[in-house]
Design a protein that fits this description.
By secondary structure, the chain is an alpha+beta fold. Helices cover 33% and strands 24% of the residues. The strands form two sheets. Strands 2-4-3-10-7-9-8-5 form an eight-stranded antiparallel barrel, surrounded by five helices. A two-stranded antiparallel sheet has the order 1-6. The relative contact order is 0.19.
Length: 384
């Protein structure tokens, strides 16, 4: 089994120990070629990425925000045993340096289609190709990976016709592409809320909403009206934006924004996710796995893998390899444990391909620098 979450001291202790050493241990013994490649391609990091700047209270705050991305600072403070001023100050420090952000996500009742688009770029042009894809609103995330296909993109569209046009008319003309292939998504098994294991169940219950919107995107049939679409896009830039700021931006009243957001959330049209520079929390290794699962086991296996703490993305696709999985680990050496867990799900399950993510360029609308910090937003807009 994979090791559990990072051990932490209680967040309301007199002082929280920095986790620099714990993060550094993620790199000790990185002797494999893949881990060396991960280090080489990570690029230079600036002072913002110093592990000493992220302590256990920060991790607890981030974990609580993964549970409830729009929780008030007062609610977070009560759950974590700190003051609201401290919670707000720590959030501002992390957010202002591009290390954490909250974004809107389409709810489960919206009808969307998805695809994984893989590209082999000309030598030396992978990042340029990836940056071009990142500017497309329907492209949610872009990763540079090891392997023959060195650019991976996750694409979301409102209709299959729109997705087809995007794949054949727009992406097909991207310069410096040697070859490409696409895998059309079928069913999404992972949620949009990931846990760090930094808070206990009591704090989790205190911060959690009455309704848990940790649903997979795009399994329904509904769509957004123009006002709902505008609110969704505004929240792409800042998922924790205040009602009055959203009202000013959208040219409506604060009460109307509050009512609309509440209604969209309850109807399964809108939810939120918290992201952060995961290398600073001790999760530096991101991998892409392609699995071939017998059709009769696909849903069962997908649900189980999608529920793993390490699973970032898990959805079924059309193809010989019919399950796409992305896992985040403390170190690449833990991959063997992941394979062991997969084998426990069934002898007929094959891992047909595995890729190390060398550099994420875009993560659900956020443009990233080489250190993984947010530098800007290209909103994910499946309806564009």
């Amino acid at each position: 089994m994979l090791p559990g979450p990072l051990p932490t001291t209680p967040v309301n202790s007199a002082s929280a120990r920095p986790i620099a050493r714990r993060i550094e241990r993620c790199y000790i013994g990185a002797s494999s070629v893949a881990e060396q490649a991960l280090k080489r391609h990570a690029g230079p990091v600036d002072d913002r990425s110093a592990a000493r700047d992220v302590d256990e209270v920060d991790l607890a705050l981030l974990d609580a925000l993964h549970v409830n991305p729009r929780a008030s600072f007062e609610r977070l403070a009560s759950a974590l045993g700190i003051s609201a001023v401290t919670a707000a100050r720590r959030w501002q420090r992390l957010a202002s340096t591009g290390r954490v952000w909250v974004s809107s996500v389409p709810g489960s009742q919206l009808g969307l289609v998805a695809a994984v688009h893989e590209i082999e770029a000309r030598p030396g042009r992978a990042e340029a190709v990836g940056r071009q894809l990142a500017e497309i609103p329907q492209v949610g995330s872009v990763y540079l990976t090891a392997g023959s296909y060195d650019v991976h993109a996750l694409i979301f569209a409102s209709h299959m016709r729109t997705l087809t046009e995007l794949l054949f008319d727009r992406l097909a003309t991207t310069p410096d592409v040697v070859r490409a292939r696409s895998h059309i998504g079928l069913e999404w098994f992972s949620g949009v809320r990931w846990r760090l294991g930094a808070i206990d169940t009591g704090a989790e219950r205190e911060v959690r909403e009455d309704r848990d919107p940790n649903r997979e995107p795009g399994r329904g049939t509904r769509t957004l009206d123009p006002d709902e679409h505008a609110l969704y896009l505004a929240l792409q830039h800042d998922g924790r934006a205040k009602y009055r700021d959203l009202a000013e931006q959208l040219g409506t009243s604060e009460q109307q924004v509050r009512r609309r957001m509440t209604a969209m959330t309850k109807r399964g049209l809108l939810t939120f996710r918290t992201d952060f520079t995961r290398i600073e929390g001790g999760w530096p290794a991101l991998l892409v796995l392609w699995l071939r699962v017998p059709d009769e086991l696909l849903e069962q296996v997908g649900v189980q893998i999608g529920a793993w703490r390490e699973s970032r993305i898990c959805f079924s696709v059309v193809g010989a390899a019919n399950l796409f999985v992305m896992v985040q680990l403390h170190r690449l050496g833990e991959l063997s444990s992941v394979f062991a867990r997969i084998r426990e799900l069934g002898d007929q399950i094959d891992v047909t391909d595995q890729r190390v993510v060398l550099r994420p360029l875009k993560s659900w609308g956020r443009l990233l620098d080489h250190a993984g910090h947010s530098t800007g937003v290209v909103p994910v807009d499946p309806w564009a």
